[in-house]
Design a protein that fits this description.
The protein is an alpha/beta fold and about 290 residues long. Helix content is about 45%, strand content about 15%.
Length: about 290
């Protein structure tokens, strides 16, 4: 990478989740307008545990596509539905022109198991979706190993199954230790995985919230990161500047290592993600200046 911005420029996508209220959806519409200025390849919209946000996910997918003019990936999981129900939903999505899917096993609500007539894991879901239509499918990858995996090799083998079943790329769980991501990519390549691996980037808008979420999903919080956010609970402007610096540095290190596509877990907050994109040269204004 030479100069202030990467050449060629980085490519980004943004993940959103369905708000719980109409007011939240109105605010999200403004967020979509702001994020669209960073010229993302696409947006994605998550699916609640047990399929609990099915209707709101579909509504938000439609809204995001209409407002942004960008492709929108609809998340689908194995949880809370039979194969027939998933296939029927997928056919409906494809009929509406929604051809991007993020296929995940999904988190099982406490005390719940997968339906006996449902897809057993994400690899089966990918294969089923490919039978329904020619979807562009992304799957999850876990540089720090999925919490339910027997070990790192078993987790990597499962990733290969998902890609071999027809997924186009893997999007990683966020990992703040960049070296962990790079070692994971090296291991994946050594295992014969050739599909793109897209690092997931988590801008830290709320450190206490990130700590809680990380504990549930198996993402570690390095000591250096905790020190950087220590004492900033009541200093949102400083916290945002630190968060921007951390995420920008991670993206630059990944760019230097040859990874140029990033998936931002925005948590429906545009500010830090947009600041990082600006640092990477991804706004219309900077694009115009760079071309001049």
């Amino acid at each position: 990478m030479t100069g202030p911005y990467p050449d060629p420029p980085a490519r980004v996508s943004f993940e959103l989740f369905p708000p719980k209220t109409e007011a939240g959806e109105a605010t999200l519409a403004q967020t979509v307008d702001q994020l669209s200025g960073a010229d993302p390849d696409y947006f994605s919209v998550t699916y609640g545990a047990g399929g609990g946000t099915r209707e709101s996910t579909a509504r938000v997918v439609d809204m995001v596509g209409a407002r942004s003019g960008r492709p929108v990936a609809h998340h689908l999981t194995c949880v809370g539905a039979s194969r027939n129900e998933v296939d029927t939903l997928a056919r409906g999505l494809h009929a509406k022109g929604i051809t991007r899917i993020v296929a995940l096993r999904g988190d099982l609500p406490e005390g719940q198991t997968l339906a006996a007539d449902g897809y057993g894991d994400a690899a089966e879901l990918v294969a089923g979706l490919r039978r329904v239509a020619d979807f562009d499918i992304s799957v999850g990858a876990y540089p720090e190993v999925h919490p339910e995996a027997a070990n790192a090799q078993a987790d990597l083998d499962h990733l290969k199954r998902k890609l071999d079943a027809g997924a186009a790329r893997a999007i990683t769980q966020y990992t703040f230790d960049t070296d962990v991501i790079l070692r994971f990519v090296d291991r994946a390549r050594d295992a014969g995985i050739t599909a793109p691996i897209v690092p997931g980037i988590m801008p830290v808008t709320n450190f206490a919230g990130i700590k809680r979420f990380s504990a549930m999903c198996g993402a570690s919080i390095p000591d250096w990161l905790a020190r950087m956010f220590e004492g900033l609970d009541d200093a949102p402007e400083t916290r945002a500047m630190v968060a921007t610096s951390v995420a920008t540095e991670q993206c630059r290190l990944l760019l230097d290592a040859g990874l140029s596509e990033f998936h931002f877990y925005t948590l429906n907050r545009p500010e830090v993600s947009l600041a990082v994109c600006r640092a990477l040269g991804l706004t219309p204004e900077i694009a115009a200046e760079t071309a001049a």
